[in-house]
Each structure stands twice: as structure tokens, then as C-alpha cells.
Design a protein that fits this description.
The complex is a heterodimer of chains A (884) and B (250). With 884 residues, chain A is an alpha+beta fold. In chain A, 49% of the residues lie in helices and 22% in strands. In chain A, the strands form 6 sheets. A 5-stranded antiparallel beta sheet of chain A has the order 6-5-9-8-7. In chain A, strands 11-10-14-13-12 form a 5-stranded antiparallel beta sheet, sandwiched between helices. In chain A, helix 1 runs antiparallel to helix 4 and helix 16 runs parallel beside helix 17. The C terminus of chain A is likely disordered. Chain B is built from 11 helices and 10 strands. In chain B, 42% of the residues are buried. The chains are: A alpha+beta (884), B alpha/beta (250).
């Protein structure tokens, strides 16, 4: 057996310290108790001494005092003071201390006074008082001494015992534990480095002690660990590969966000060079990795409740702070120490997410474009005959998605009867013959109107050639048709103009010959009154013919003219009196001029003729009187306007509008009204050349004409004359960028029976950030308001079918929904007299703030914002808005 | 009966008158308690009142007062008499009142006390030439014997006992050399306890002894003094002396 090497062992030292400390504590406690007991006993002894003195000494002392035996008395007193803790004994006679033994003390003491009484002459006479003083200090001192002795002796004893135990512990236990610890330190789980043995004589199996058991257990544990390690290594090897090579990022973290492990994929996803770099840098995942820390908080919260969370899409941050989209999933787990950790996976879905976002944006744009373009998608599953329509498809037929069911049969029934058979045949042919669908046909709109639709589609077939799905897109080509008609009209008018111009030119020449010869005859026959009469009649006829040819030449573009750069306001003001005299007294004439009106390059003489013609036409439309309003405004026409009005260019124009409250025109009349010789008047009441002359003037001036008219609603002619640039007046044309325009986020209800104008308004307003809701007429608008609660503004056309015009709708809305603000728009001037049938103040305000058609986006944005920013829907008339 | 009392009315009157004007008769109801520290044969013992007892009783009888005489230790008697516990102390030397200011001495002496010193018979003779000549010896005395206390203040070896008996014991045990005691008391005790003693020669001078009363009885002092004078004059004192101490003188 190896000689034990004694070296300071922490455990043994602690053991020794613990023994000493505990022993000392016990000693202190027991000593304290003992001293307490001794104190009580000593004090009790003192009391006993006093009692003993009282019972055993008083008689003797009394006799001595009676006999005044001083020697005896002193001896007695001295004897009393020699008792333990008695420091003084004295006999007092009266107030005088007569005999004393011992010394007076200052400290703590206990005094007993015993009266000495003598029986004298049959009476008990007090002859003196014995005063005995005991010292408590003496008791304390003895206790202190005793305590010192006890503590010292116990301390020494404890120390010696402790040292002995220390050495025993060191020899029997600690050194073996040290060896076990050294063995454990040297232990490598993957290797068996030999069995543990202790440096002592081994015990037999029957006499094994605790250390032997521990050694045996150690050795068994070693073997078991080796086996487990081998198994774990094999398992770890298997999963390490997955961890290292997984395409997904795999990580583990503490619950407060400290990253503890990560695989290479996660480091790569987050732009770190290695997992080690990632782990060392990330100490707070919530702050450093999550773009929104609240995402992590929510994940952790769910983890704490459910123990896991399903894959969630969220944004993290790469190294450097660049965001990325990831799909994160996680769960909680506990290690062997019971510490809770989080582990999860991440996938980089940035590309997919960007694609989704792009797709969504694209779909939104497509939807907006489709809404603006009036296109509708459709898909028909042939086997089930199930049809899916996009919202645009419903609108093409004039319905809302919840008004009719999307089905092939419903669609076929909406086709114009004349086109139905042809359309069905085309569909069938497309399915049979693999031919694409491309056709135009008419449908009956929900408002009864006929609309032209272009349908483009194709059929999909399965592997057997069986048709499975047809799908396509429908577009409302009514506008294109209208444009074509306008173009045809324009071309027709141009052709007529050329023709009439040629004829008029030739005819003018002939008239000139006739007129000239008549003048010659007049001079040749001055005295032939009868001949002169005939010549005069002939001259009148020729003059009349010249007048007609002149008008025809005005219509024709071939007529030469003299243009000047002028401000039309001045001309109109000069002609105001003439115009008024041209009309009847029953017609009220109002003028409204834009005082900053731009210059125009026109023939002033032709302009005057045009104005007079329009005034006369208005007079003829108002036989019973009415209102004529002549306005001038600066207008900027955008590309959208020119797209819708091919005869019009975009740019800056001066608009002159002449509006009456007469009987108006039908669409057919409006289409032909500018044709030469076309008239609705009785035969002989008009030449039919007035408006053709207006048309010709505008053509020559580079402008165009827009006519707004509805039967019984009056007519407004809007003449657009291009702005003339003058050296003194040149200025840059500033088109408002959409980003500079007033914007908003309010919800606007757009009401217009013209779907094209509705879509334009929707497009303009959505670009400006507003939310839009649409209605096709006044009744529909009221239904929409019942079901939609967050409408901020009503933007409505004035003239609409359905029995509820814009003003009537405004009154109803103002009454039922007073918080909704209202802006009206129209191309036609309403007679002011009609407003007297309604709430004059409110409607006058609306009328004054009316947005003139056509409007561009800046005009619309300014008007919308102005109305929305008004503090209340006040009934006080305000100034007319300035329209740029 | 009524006639009898009527006929004796003068006698009855005298008797009543006499009772009313006899203060000493009233006084005779308050017996004076007097102590003495002197034992037999001077003082009283169980069998005899002793010289002091007979003398003091006769003196106070002559002034129509009764006394009760009892033994008290010497110092105690003076203290009690001084404190008024008792009415007086008897048979003390003169000058006691200096130490006990509440005592009043009856100026007429009661008798003479032979203060002596004794050694054992086999002790070498001690000559007395003054109190300083006793310096070499161990003296013993009874506590409260003022004569000896006054005269031995300069002596360094003086043992005190509470009683003559104890003093004789000290002498017998040779714890003292000289026993300071009254001549006749010493002889009485020596005889009683069979201790052979020898008186120091020359002996100390005999001292007159007096009665001391508490000052509250100061008014009796002249009467008592006159009574003692009368007793000396008519030989009563001598007769008492002979009766009580004569046997010792033979």
C-alpha cells in the first residue's frame, strides 16, 4: 500500500472547518445555556445565603448586638463576608453603620436587610439592622471565567478532534476521491484507459466498503459511457451530415435570443462567412436578425404556449442589414440540465416573395388596367360547364357580381338576338376545330343599351384532344366604335367640306360671272326701269347665292382666312350687346369669363359669325325663353382626352362654351348636326349651314368642337381653340405631375351613366390614393350608400337616366347622409331657373362648384381635394372654382 | 346603711380628697424600668435582688415609686436607657452622660464599686503602678464596663467579653493574663467555678456608683437623691450592704 501523501485537500479542509464551526457553534450554544443556568443558580445561591443568614445568624448576631459584643459582632460579620459572593456585612443602628465587615462596591450588587429584634420586657424590640450585600459582579466574573475555561477547553478539544478527523478523512477518503477525480479527468469517453483502482489494500468481496462500491460503479459507468458514446457518435455522425449539408438553415438559441448553434446553410442565408461567425455575432436574435422584433416576440410567445409554431413568413436581416424574406418554423426543447432552448429552421423565400409581390402588384395593375380598359376575363370549364367571370365581365353587361350568376347561358342570353347564332357557332367551332375565338358582337346592357363587345379566347385540350377549358377576354369596344363613328363623321365632314368647297368655289365663280354681268347690264340700261327691276332681282339672287357659297366656303377648309392673335373675351364683350339684341327678351344671357384667358390665333370675323350663329341656334332652341350662358376658360386637355376624342389634340386650349336650356338634341341629331344643310327646323326656316360653318372655323383654327346635349336638358357647345404662343406671353407649359397633385385616402362614390367616364375617374382617383366605389346612376348610388358606410364624397354626373339626376341625388344624399360631401360634374349648363324648385342655396353652391367636363386629372384632383377639405357641407353659395 | 356612710362621711371625704391630691399615687402606677449590668452579689440574681436591687427599690419606695430592676448587658443597659427604651440604668460610674447624653445622673451615689484586676493564682504577681504598668499583659474585661474602657484605651491587648463568666473563662484558659473585674463579683465567680485567682495589689481605687435616669425622669432626680441621702443617714444603706455583701467581707 502506498504511503499516503498528505497534502492539503479542499474537501477535507472544508470538512475540518465545518466540524470546527459546528462544534464551536454547539459549544457556544451549550455554554450559553450552561452559563445561564449557572447564573440563575448563583443568584439563587445568593438568595439562599441571604435566607440562611436570616434563619441561622440573626439570633446569634442579635444577641451579640444586644450584648454589644463587638468582637463577636465583628467576627460574625467577617464570617458573613467570607461567604461566597457576600462582599459586605454591616449592622446599622438607626442611620449609623455601627459595625462593618467587607467593602462597599460600586458595581452590580444585591442587598438584603435583616432587622435584629430582641425580646425585652415582653416586647420585640428592633435594636439594629443587619445589611448584607452580595456582589453580582462576582457572579459575572465567575461566569466569565467559567465561560472562558469552557470555550477554551472545548475549542482545544474540538480543534484536536477536528484535526484528527481531518487526517482520517484525508487518509481514508479524500485521497481516494482525488484519485477518482484524476481518473475522471483523464477519462475519454471514446477510449477505455483501464479500470480504476485505489491505493490501498483491496477489501474482499464480503467486506467491501463504500469506496469499493464507488470504484465498481465508476468502472461500470466507464464501460456504459463508452458504449453510449460509441452509439452517440454513430448517431451524431449520421445527423451531423444532415445538419451541415441541409439547404435549410437550422439553428438553436436560448429563450432570450442568444444563438447557440447554426448550420452552414443558415450562415450562408444570412451572409455570414461561417456558422461560428454567425453565432459569435448574434447575441440577440430579436434585435439583430428580425426586421420587426415583434415577430420574434410573437413566435416566442407561441412557443411558450404550444411548444412549437408552424412555418411563418417574416422578414429577417442579413449581415449588413439587408432585409430578406424567410419561412421560419420552431419548437422548444430542454437539455439534460432542464434548460429550455429554441430550435428552428429558416428558408430563404426572398425570391418567391418578391415574385409574389411582383405578381400581386402586376395583378393589381392588371386589375386597374382592366377596370380602366373595361376588359373582362372569363373561364369556362367544359365538362362541368362551370364559368368564372372577372369583375370586368360583369361590368361589361352592366351588372354587379352579386346581381347575376356567372354562367354560359346567362352570357348567351345577353347577346343581341341578331348576333347570338353567329357567336354560338364561333364558340362551337373553336372547340371543334382548335381555332381561336376572335369576334365582335353586340350585347344588351342592363340599362337596355346595345354595346359592342370584342371577345378573344382559346380552347385548351387534354391529351386526347378533348376540350377541357375555354378562356378568354372580353373588351368593350363601344368606345372604339364611337371613335370610328366620329372618325367616319369627321372624314365625312372633311369629304363634304372638300366637295362643298370645290362646288362652292366653282359656284362662286359662276355667281361672280352672273353678278358681274348683271352689274354691267345695270349700267348699260340705266333708263330701262323694267329691265332694271329684273336686273335688281337677279342681283339679289346672285347675292343670295354668294352668301350661301360664302357659308359653304366657311365650312370648307379651303377657304382662306386672316388670323390674328386675340383674346376672345374682348370680342365677346364687344358683341354682348349684339348678342342680346339677337335673342328675345325672354332669354337671359349670362357671361362668365376667365380673366387670365389665353390668347388664340383666329380669324376675328369668322369668330364673330360663329358666335352669332350659336346664339341664334340657342334662341331657336328656346322658343319659350330660357337662359343662355357664354363662358370662356383656359383648359389643358391631356392624352386620355385626346384618346377618347380622336379629333382633338392634347395641349392648352381656350374653351368657349355656349350653353342653352333649350330642348336639346338626340344622339342621332347630334351626330349630324355639323353636316352642311342638315337642319331640324321647318323647311325654309334655316339653311342648315350655321353649325357647319362653326365646324369649318374650328378646323381652320386647329381646334375642335364638343357638343353636350340631352333631349329636354339643353345643349352646350364647347369650342376648343388652341392657345396661341406670343413672344410677350410665352410661358412654359407646366403639366402637373401626378406626384405633385393634391392626394387623399378618402373613399369616393363615382356616379356616371357613361362607363368610360366612370373608369377614367376611377383611374385618376386611384392613382391619387383615393378609394373608389362606382354606381351607374342615381338610384344605384342610393343603394350603394345603404350598403357602404364609409363614403366620404359623392362625385356625380348631373344628367343621368333613371329618373334621378345629379341635383336630385345630391339633395337625397345631403338629407340622408349629411356628412357626405358632394361634387357634381357636367358638360351641360343647367338652367338656373330650375334650381328654384329645389333648395336654392345648397344647389347653387353645388352648381357654382361644378366641375366642367371634360376634366383632366389635375382639375379633378384639385376639385376633389377642395370639396373634401371644406369644413362642412354649407348651404352658402361660394365663388366658382378656378379651373386652370 | 345610708346612715353608716353619712356617719363616716368625713372619712370618706378625706379618702377621696387624698386620692385626688396624691400624684405619687398616680405615679406609682408607672413602674420605672431600671436596668443594671452588675451581677451578683451586687446585682440581682434569681435568689436575691442584690445590693443594688434592695438599695434602689428602697430609695424609690421612699419617693413612692415602684421600680423593676433587671439585668442587661452593660452597654445594652446604657443604650436602652439612653434611647428611652428603659427608664434608667443603675450602678454606673460618674461621667456616663458624656457618652450618653440622654441620661441624667442622680448625684448621690448608691455605693462604691471595687474595680480590681485578677490573675490566676499561679500567675506571677502583677504589680499595679498605673494603667501603663499593665501594658505588657493581656487584659480582659466585660464589654460596657466604662471604668475599664476609659482606663485601657491606651492598652493594645484588651479582650472583651459579654459577661463576667466568659471573662473568667478567658482567664482560666490563660487567654488573658489579667481579668479586670469587680472584686466581689470575681470572687463570687471564682468560687462558683472553682478557679483560683489572685487579686492585683495594690488594687484599683473603689469608685462611687450612681443611678442614671433617662432625662424624661429628670424631675425625679432630686427626690431620689434625697432618698439616698436619707438612707445613708439612717443607716439603711449600710444595713443593705451588710446584708448582701457582708459574707464576702468576712
Amino acid at each position: 500500500m502506498k504511503k499516503p501523501v498528505f497534502k492539503r485537500d479542499p474537501l477535507a479542509t472544508n470538512f475540518l472547518v465545518a466540524i470546527i464551526a459546528f462544534s464551536s457553534l454547539i459549544t457556544l450554544a451549550s455554554t450559553a445555556l450552561q452559563l445561564r443556568s449557572d447564573y440563575v443558580y448563583m443568584v439563587s445561591s445568593l438568595h439562599s445565603t441571604f435566607a440562611e443568614i436570616e434563619t441561622g445568624h440573626l439570633d446569634t448576631l442579635k444577641d451579640s448586638v444586644w450584648l454589644l459584643d463587638e468582637k463577636q459582632i465583628n467576627s460574625h460579620l467577617l464570617g458573613l463576608t467570607e461567604r461566597r459572593d457576600i462582599v459586605k456585612a454591616s449592622i446599622t443602628i438607626g442611620d449609623q453603620e455601627r459595625w462593618t465587615a467587607g467593602v462597599s462596591i460600586q458595581g452590580r450588587k444585591m442587598t438584603a436587610n435583616f432587622p435584629l429584634k430582641q425580646l425585652h420586657r415582653k416586647e420585640l424590640l428592633q435594636i439594629a439592622v443587619l445589611n448584607v450585600t452580595g456582589s453580582i459582579d462576582a457572579i459575572y466574573q465567575r461566569l466569565i471565567n467559567k465561560a472562558t475555561v469552557i470555550l477554551l477547553s472545548n475549542g482545544i478539544k474540538t480543534f484536536i478532534v477536528g484535526l484528527f478527523v481531518y487526517f482520517l478523512f484525508q487518509t481514508w477518503i479524500a485521497r481516494h476521491l482525488t484519485k477518482m477525480a484524476d481518473f475522471a479527468d483523464a477519462f475519454k469517453p471514446g477510449e477505455l484507459s483501464g479500470m480504476l483502482t485505489l491505493d490501498r489494500t483491496p477489501n474482499s468481496k464480503e467486506k467491501q466498503d463504500d469506496l469499493d462500491h464507488m470504484v465498481n460503479a465508476f468502472n461500470r459507468m466507464q464501460i456504459s459511457i463508452k458504449a453510449s458514446y460509441d452509439a452517440l457518435s454513430n448517431s451524431e455522425e449520421k445527423y451531423r451530415s444532415i445538419f451541415e449539408n441541409a439547404a435549410e438553415g437550422i439553428f438553436q438559441s436560448t429563450t432570450d435570443g442568444q444563438l447557440v448553434s447554426a448550420n452552414p446553410a443558415m450562415a450562408h442565408i444570412l451572409n455570414y462567412t461561417s456558422p461560428e461567425e454567425l453565432i459569435s455575432e448574434i447575441t440577440d436574435m430579436g434585435r439583430q436578425l428580425y426586421l420587426n422584433q415583434s415577430d420574434r416576440d410573437k413566435c416566442v410567445e407561441q412557443l411558450m404556449i404550444k411548444g412549437k409554431f408552424d412555418a411563418k413568413e417574416m422578414q429577417w436581416k442579413r449581415k449588413g442589414g439587408l432585409p430578406l424574406w424567410v419561412l421560419v418554423s420552431g419548437r422548444t426543447f430542454e437539455n439534460s440540465n432542464g434548460d429550455q432552448f429554441l430550435e428552428g429552421t429558416i428558408q430563404d423565400i426572398s425570391i418567391r416573395k418578391e415574385a409574389e409581390i411582383a405578381l400581386r402588384e402586376s395583378q393589381e395593375h392588371l386589375s386597374m388596367v382592366m377596370q380602366a380598359s373595361n376588359a373582362g376575363f372569363w373561364i369556362r370549364d367544359i365538362p362541368s360547364n362551370k364559368v368564372i367571370w372577372s369583375e370586368g365581365n360583369y361590368r361589361l353587361l352592366g351588372y354587379e357580381p352579386d346581381e347575376i350568376e356567372a354562367s354560359y347561358e346567362h352570357w348567351v342570353m345577353r347577346i343581341h338576338p341578331s348576333d347570338r347564332e353567329r357567336v354560338v357557332a364561333v364558340i362551337k367551332n373553336a372547340m371543334d376545330s382548335h381555332i381561336e375565338i376572335n369576334m365582335e358582337y353586340r350585347v344588351v346592357h342592363s340599362d337596355g343599351q346595345i354595346r359592342w363587345i370584342k371577345n378573344i379566347g382559346k380552347t385548351l385540350f387534354d391529351a386526347n384532344g378533348t376540350p377541357t377549358v375555354t378562356c378568354g377576354i372580353q373588351i368593350d369596344v363601344a368606345h372604339r366604335k364611337e371613335l370610328e363613328k366620329q372618325l367616319r363623321t369627321s372624314q365625312k365632314l372633311e369629304a363634304i367640306g372638300q366637295l362643298t368647297g370645290g362646288i362652292a368655289h366653282d359656284f362662286n365663280n359662276i355667281l361672280g360671272i352672273i353678278h358681274g354681268n348683271f352689274e354691267i347690264l345695270q349700267r348699260m340700261l340705266p333708263d330701262n326701269k323694267k329691265a332694271l327691276g329684273r336686273i335688281k332681282t337677279g342681283l339679289k339672287g346672285a347675292e343670295r347665292g354668294e352668301e350661301i357659297t360664302r357659308k359653304l366656303l366657311n365650312f370648307s377648309t379651303t377657304k382662306t382666312d386672316e388670323k390674328k392673335i386675340v383674346k376672345i373675351n374682348e370680342f365677346i364683350r364687344e358683341m354682348a350687346d349684339l348678342i342680346s339684341k339677337s335673342l328675345t327678351v325672354k332669354i337671359e344671357v349670362n357671361f362668365e369669363f376667365d380673366e387670365d384667358i389665353w390668347l388664340v390665333d383666329i380669324d376675328p370675323g369668322d369668330f364673330q359669325d360663329v358666335l352669332i350663329n350659336l346664339a341664334l341656334n340657342a334662341r331657336d332652341a328656346m322658343p319659350d325663353g330660357g337662359n343662355l350662358k357664354i363662358e370662356s376658360h383656359n383648359k389643358v386637355l391631356d392624352e386620355i382626352y385626346s384618346q377618347r376624342n380622336p379629333q382633338a389634340a392634347s395641349g392648352e386650349f381656350v374653351m368657349l362654351s355656349v350653353g342653352d336650356t333649350g330642348h336639346g338634341m338626340t344622339a342621332e341629331v347630334k351626330e349630324r348636326v355639323c353636316e352642311p344643310f342638315f337642319t331640324t327646323k321647318e323647311h325654309g326656316k334655316g339653311t342648315g349651314l350655321g353649325l357647319s360653318m362653326v365646324y369649318g372655323f374650328l378646323q381652320r383654327s386647329g381646334g375642335h368642337l364638343k357638343i353636350y346635349s340631352e333631349p329636354d336638358e339643353g345643349t352646350t357647345f364647347c369650342l376648343y381653340l388652341p392657345r396661341a404662343t406670343d413672344a410677350t406671353q410665352s410661358q412654359e407649359i407646366c403639366y402637373d405631375k401626378t406626384s405633385d397633385l393634391p392626394r387623399g385616402t378618402e373613399t369616393i362614390l363615382i356616379v356616371d351613366d357613361e362607363i368610360g367616364l366612370r373608369n377614367v375617374a376611377v383611374f385618376y382617383l386611384k392613382e391619387l390614393g383615393y378609394k373608389t366605389v362606382v354606381a351607374k346612376d342615381g338610384q344605384h348610388a342610393l343603394e350603394v350608400l345603404k350598403s357602404t358606410t364609409n363614403i366620404d364624397l359623392l362625385f356625380s354626373d348631373v344628367v343621368m337616366p333613371g329618373g334621378l339626376d345629379g341635383y336630385q341625388l345630391s339633395l337625397a344624399v345631403h338629407e340622408q347622409y349629411p356628412e357626405i360631401k358632394i361634387l357634381l360634374t357636367s358638360g351641360i349648363t343647367k338652367k338656373p331657373a330650375e334650381l328654384s324648385n329645389h333648395d336654392v342655396g345648397y344647389l347653387v353652391t353645388l352648381d357654382n362648384e361644378l366641375l366642367r367636363k371634360p376634366y383632366n386629372q389635375p382639375e379633378l384632383s384639385t376639385a376633389i381635394r377642395r370639396i373634401l377639405d371644406k369644413s362642412e357641407n354649407c348651404d352658402v353659395a361660394t365663388e366658382a372654382p378656378e379651373i386652370k | 346603711m345610708a346612715n353608716f356612710f353619712w356617719s363616716c362621711r368625713i372619712y370618706i371625704f378625706i379618702i377621696i380628697f387624698g386620692f385626688c391630691f396624691q400624684p405619687h399615687l398616680t405615679k406609682s402606677a408607672d413602674k420605672l424600668m431600671l436596668s443594671t449590668a452588675t451581677k451578683a452579689p451586687w446585682g440581682p440574681d434569681k435568689t436575691s435582688p442584690g445590693y443594688i436591687g434592695l438599695t434602689v427599690k428602697e430609695a424609690f419606695r421612699r419617693i413612692h415609686r415602684e421600680i423593676d430592676l433587671f439585668y442587661l448587658p452593660p452597654e445594652r443597659g446604657l443604650i436602652n436607657a439612653n434611647n428611652g427604651v428603659d427608664d434608667g440604668d443603675v450602678f454606673r460610674i460618674a461621667g456616663i452622660e458624656k457618652e450618653y447624653p440622654n441620661l441624667v445622673m442622680v448625684p448621690e451615689s448608691v455605693g462604691h464599686f471595687e474595680f480590681s484586676g485578677f490573675t490566676l493564682a499561679d500567675h506571677s504577681p502583677v504589680g499595679f503602678t498605673g494603667w501603663s504598668s499593665l501594658e505588657p499583659y493581656l487584659l480582659g474585661m466585660v464589654t460596657g464596663w466604662k471604668y475599664y474602657e476609659f482606663n485601657t484605651t491606651s492598652n493594645s491587648h484588651v479582650a472583651k467579653t459579654s459577661s463576667p463568666k466568659l471573662l473568667l473563662g478567658l482567664l482560666r484558659d490563660r487567654k488573658i493574663d489579667v481579668m479586670l473585674l469587680e472584686r466581689w463579683m470575681a470572687q463570687e465567680l471564682a468560687q462558683l467555678y472553682n478557679v483560683k485567682i489572685r487579686r492585683i495589689i495594690p488594687s484599683f481605687p473603689s469608685m462611687p456608683m450612681y443611678i442614671y435616669l433617662n432625662k424624661k425622669h429628670a424631675s425625679l432626680v432630686p427626690e431620689v437623691s434625697a432618698a439616698l441621702v436619707s438612707m445613708k443617714r439612717d443607716g439603711s444603706l449600710q444595713r443593705i450592704h451588710d446584708l448582701t455583701l457582708g459574707v464576702y467581707l468576712k
